[in-house]
Amino acid sequence: MNSFYYKRVLLKISGESLMGKQTYGIDTDMVLRVAEEIKDVSEQGIEVCLVIGGGNIFRGVSGAAAGMERATGDYMGMLATVMNALAMQSALEQKDVPVRVMSALPISAVCEPYIRRRAMRHMEKGRIVIFAAGTGNPFFTTDTAAALRASEMNCDVLLKGTRVDGVYDSDPEKFANAKRFDALSYIHVLSRDLKVMDASAISLSRENNIPILVFSISNSGGFNSVLKHDGAFTLVNEAGAR
User: Fold this and answer.
1) Is the model's pLDDT at 2 over the cut of 60?
2) What is the DSSP-derived secondary structure letter of residue 231?
3) Where exactly are the structural domains of the chain?
4) For 119-149, what is each residue's pLDDT tens digit?
5) CATH code for the structural domain at 8-237
């Protein structure tokens, strides 16, 4: 018997996390390490699906700020998430892990279209499913896509793997005295405008009673540990308590 708290999980990884120590693009060593952690968890009977951001390649909001039409920038960002998903698929396949990429934008030459029932079947067969291209619509972030897919897949928890080990009252990469929260309620996150995920993602998670665990994907073994409620992380749920 294992001591995992959850059976089916969605792991949301920021695109920036895949940069490793680089300032842009994909760090192959980082992708392979994350793939190894996913493999370790999957082999212990946990059903895993993923959503990966695209901020390491392109961010629609910054494109809009630079004068590009926001919708166009968001579609470009969706394509960036497909690139990251394919990189993760390749890393997992190198480790002999069965995996499928499903895109909300039809790109049949490189991945499957997203069909909910087919995705459920893949997971039931023990395959890792990577959801690419966000929700397929502009003006929605990959955080919202993660909350949506977690709801559709009936996941027990949404895990957000970032570069820091939880939710802080200020940016810990800029302020040494930033305080980490052990647990927060959805309402607390929304009312204090804490930058865990965007408001749509938090509201969708709350509506479907899906807890959110924020942890550092940069720490080796962090994914396995957080599923057992070990190590440093922040839990966001209705009660605001672990």
Assistant:
1) no
2) S
3) 8-237
4) 999 999 999 999 999 999 999 999 999 999 9
5) 3.40.1160.10
